[in-house]
Design brief:
57% of the residues lie in helices and 9% in strands. The chain has one domain: Rossmann fold (3-Layer(aba) Sandwich), CATH 3.40.50. The radius of gyration is 15 Å and the shape is globular. The protein is mostly helical. The protein is built from eight helices and four strands; from the N terminus they run αβαααβαβααβα. 15% of the residues are buried. It comes from Candidatus Brocadia carolinensis.
Amino acid sequence: MLNPYGFPARLRKSFEEGAFLAVISEPILEELADVLSRPRIKDKYGITEDDIKELLVLIEERAEIVSLAGNVAICRDNDDNLFVETAIKGQASFLVTRDDDMKFDKGVSSFLLKYGVTVVSVSKFLAFMNRT
């Protein structure tokens, strides 16, 4: 959401405008802070520490934060399970991701559909937002 261009910029703008309620958990916030602080990411997108802090504060203030029990184990990549559990605990309608493992894993999609959650790409989520 720090990329000032394309789908990430449109997603952030929609979030800032309150077009949707995001659901997040502490482990995801921690992972986000860690990933954004990596030199490779900071250099690629020209991100400063202030940019990272601003985004994290925005998310903490506007997103619904849910607690996780760590009892979901459906993803090939164990680290992705926290995203699935967050979507379920937050009663999300969509799990928006750029992760191909999650988008194309029929087992994950089927599992989430039992909870009313659809896995979509950022572009598909934005297209859905534009229709409503």
